[in-house]
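Cross-posting from the chemistry board since nobody answered there.

I work mostly on the small-molecule side, so proteins are not my area. We synthesized decanoyl-CoA and want a rough idea of how it might sit in this target. Sequence and SMILES are below. Is it possible to get a predicted 3D structure of the two together?
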Amino acid sequence: MTGYLDDIRVDPSEIAAQEALYGPLTQSIRSLIDAAIRTEVDSEDIAGATAALTQVASLLRARQIDGSYGAQPSVTGVQRSWASPVIGVRNPIAPPLILEHEPDGRVWARFRLGAGYEGPPSLVHGGVSALILDHVLGEAVHASGHWGMTGTLTLRYRRPTPLNRPLRADARIDRVEGRKVYADGSISDERGITVEASGIFILPTGYAAAR
Ligand SMILES: CCCCCCCCCC(=O)SCCNC(=O)CCNC(=O)[C@H](O)C(C)(C)COP(=O)(O)OP(=O)(O)OC[C@H]1O[C@@H](n2cnc3c(N)ncnc32)[C@H](O)[C@@H]1OP(=O)(O)O
C-alpha cells in the first residue's frame, strides 16, 4: 500500500507555492457550498450561477489527474493529505482542521462547523463528528510513530454539538499492543465535551511499521 507515509522529497518552497495557489481556490469553493445552502436569490440568479459554475468546472477539468489524489510527493515532516475531508488544502468539504502537535504526542485543533455540516437543525451531524474524530485519533497514532487503519471507532455522543460555535478536537494514544494502537479523543464546545471517541488502529498484516 502506498499513501501518506511515502517520503518522496520535494522542494518545500514548491509545496508552499502550491498551497498559496490552491488554498484560495479551495476556500472559494468552501464559501460557495455555504452560499448554495443558504441563498435565497431569485430563480434567474440561481440559473445564472448554475451556468457560471458549469463553466468553472469545465475550466478546471481541462487538465486533471486520473482518479483520486492518492499519494502525492511529500517532504519529511510535511504530510500532503491535501484531499483529506478533514484537513485537506484542496478539499472544500474539509472544515478544515489545522492540527497542532504537542511534544507529548497529543494532537488538537480549534475549528467551527457551519451550515454544510448540519444534522439535527442547528447541530452538527453525528457522522461529521465521527469523521473528524477518526482523523484526529489517526493523526495521534501517526504522531506516536505508528500507523494503522481504523479497525474500530467507538463514539459516545454526550451532548449535541452546536453549529457555528467554537469547537475543539483532542486526541492522544493510550497504549500499543502489538500491531494495535489504542487512541482516545473528544470534541468539545465552550461548555465541555460533546463527543468522546476511542479507536483501535491496526497495522495491516504484511505492512511495515512507520518507525
Ligand atoms: C498523518 C496521517 C494521518 C491520517 C489519519 C487518517 C485517519 C483515517 C483512517 C481511516 O479512515 S482508515 C479507513 C477505515 N478503515 C478501514 O477501511 C479498515 C478496513 N479493515 C482492514 O483493513 C483490516 O480488517 C484491518 C487492517 C483493520 C485488520 O486486518 P488484519 O488482517 O491486519 O488483522 P488481523 O485479523 O490479523 O488481526 C490483528 C489483530 O487485530 C484485531 N482486529 C482485527 N480487526 C479488528 C477490528 N476491526 N477492530 C479491532 N480489532 C481488530 C485482531 O483480533 C487481532 O488481535 P490480536 O493481535 O490481539 O489477536
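Reply from a structural biologist on the board:
Welcome over. Reading the output above for you: The domain at 100-202 is CATH 3.10.129.10 (Thiol Ester Dehydrase; Chain A). The first helix runs from residue 12 to 38. Happy to explain the C-alpha cell format if needed.
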